[in-house]
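FW: tagging you since you asked about this chain on Friday. Here's the raw sequence from the shared folder, copied in full. Didn't touch anything.
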Amino acid sequence: MTQGNSMQGMDTELGRSIGQQMGQQAGQVSGMVGRISSVVGALNWQGTDRQTFLSDWDGSFAPQANNAAQSLDEQGSVLCQHADRQDAASA
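HL: got it, structure written out here
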């Protein structure tokens, strides 16, 4: 929406594009975490260091990365919703 020479509101096409990209990137992060978990779990490694690493990976890092991916996906959806509302308000 423009007012005079200045734009107000969102470039909705760009907003939707970015929101969709955020969702795609979130999926890539989740997929990467899953692949790393599989590789790490199959690693031929014995001893307490392995147990400590796996405990840290499974108990902290992987869940935090998955939470970040979920938040990224959710915020991408929110951005798309804002674009939809902007279009509706401008119609």
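FW: Strands lie at 2-3, 6-7.
HL: agreed, and The longest strand covers residues 2-3.
FW: great, closing this out.
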